[in-house]
Amino acid sequence: MQEQIFRSSWDKLTKGITAFVVLLVLGIPALVLWKHLDEGSGNAWLYFGIALLISLLFLGACAWFAPRYYTVDANEVVIRRWGADVRIARDEISEIRELEKKDMRRTIRTFGCGGLFGYFGWFYNPTMKSFLFYGNNRDHLILIETDKRKYVIAPDETSEMIAVMGG
User: Exposure pattern of 49-87 as b/e (b: 16+ CB <10 Å)?
Assistant: First the structure.
């Protein structure tokens, strides 16, 4: 089987949260510079540089782990990220199914990002218990269950991906 690629588009909430947080985080160094220039501090540009570096490191770390797209081949499902990819061996998958909105009710993020560059990390809800979520939207969801963990992904072409994976 040739590798197939499945996109994951940002939903409106991801776009809004990402834009707001990027502007906020990059606005902090500007405020630091403005405050220190206003006070006549000789170190204003140094403080600005430090604040900018910290802001860029924060945004870079979040983007590093964000899901970009998914690939499926004969051996595995891969969640492609800027950082290390997440690989799920197909022979370890015990269940694949499309999720409905009701399956995600009362979901809370326990560790990860909930909208900044996507939704990724550990999440919990009373129905599925603890699971890893790697998606950019909350509308096109697939549950991939193995003996060890549960994954929720969000490809744009949900039905096509399930068909390719044999679900």
Answer: eebbeebeeebeebbebbbbbbebeeebbbbebeeeebe
What residue spans define the domains of the chain?
A: 1-167
Q: Which residue is associated with the tokens 């370890």?
A: 92
105-146: pLDDT as tens digits: 999 999 999 999 999 999 999 999 999 999 999 999 999 999
Question: Please, what is the Cα angle at 17 between 12 and 23, to 5 degrees?
Answer: 125
Helices (H), 8-157: 12-38, 44-65
Q: Model pTM?
A: 0.89
Which among 43, 14, 47, 46 has a CA at the least distance from the CA of 28? 47
Phi and psi at residue 64, to the nearest 5°? -55, -35
